[in-house]
Amino acid sequence: MTTASTSGVGVLEHGYKLIMSACGALAAIIFGLMSLLIGFDVILRNLGYDWIPSSVELSEYMLMIATFAGAPWLLHHNGHIRVDVIVNKLPAVFARQLEVLCNLIGIAVCATLTWQSYIIALDNATTGTLVFKELVFPEWWLNLPLLMASLLLTIEFCRRLRQSIHHLRHQGN
């Protein structure tokens, strides 16, 4: 590999790590802000004030965004829940093959979610549907967190697949 292509890959990897870090930071900040919002709202309500009438709705949206923002970061850092009782009992080559299969399934599921989220967001944007609760906004905005998270999860599963295939090929060496 040439120096130019190696440095290009390094820039991509660095950019990707920054995106993953941004996802984790965004999730943490939103969870923190949500805690403050709920705490502040509880204090105000106990004092007889209802200054934040949309606090419940805001916290619902914040929870959704933080969850979807944090998912790619968790997968990237192997922080997700992984049931590997059976995998740990398998011979290494079978465990690696199962890892390849799981990554392929992850790619298929997340790519399907990405596509469906895109189609629904496009349909909502085209029809101009709105969410009418305490807050009023275009409905397609609600599709963006899932769309972005599922796209990043698809990319992460592709990265993991590449790594697991590499490990499987070099298992005997």
Give an overview of the whole structure:
This protein is mainly alpha-helical and 173 residues long. The chain has helices at 3-46, 55-76, 85-89, 92-127, 143-169, and strands spanning 130-132, 136-138. Strands 1-2 form a two-stranded antiparallel sheet. Strand 1 and strand 2 (136-138) form a beta hairpin. Helix 1 packs antiparallel against helix 2, helix 2 packs parallel to helix 5 (143-169) and helix 4 runs antiparallel to helix 5.
Largest sheet features: 2 strands, antiparallel
Number of helices: 5
Can you write the helix and strand succession as a string?
Answer: HHHHEEH
Task: Based on Cα principal axes, name the global outline.
Answer: elongated
**How many DSSP E strands?**
2
Structural class: mainly alpha
pLDDT below 50 for ≥5 consecutive residues: which ranges? Answer: none
> Averaged pLDDT, please?
90
Q: Which percent band covers the strand fraction?
A: under 5%
Strand numbers in spatial order across the main sheet:
1-2
> How far apart, in Å, are the first and last alpha carbons?
22 Å
Helix content: over 70%
Computed over alpha carbons, the radius of gyration is: 21 Å
Strands, helices and their partners?
Elements: H1 3-46, H2 55-76, H3 85-89, H4 92-127, E1 130-132, E2 136-138, H5 143-169
Antiparallel strand pairs: 1-2
Helix pairs in contact: 1-2, 2-5, 4-5
Summarize the structure.
The chain has 173 residues and is mainly alpha-helical. It has helices spanning 3-46, 55-76, 85-89, 92-127, 143-169, and strands at 130-132, 136-138. Strands 1-2 form a two-stranded antiparallel ribbon.
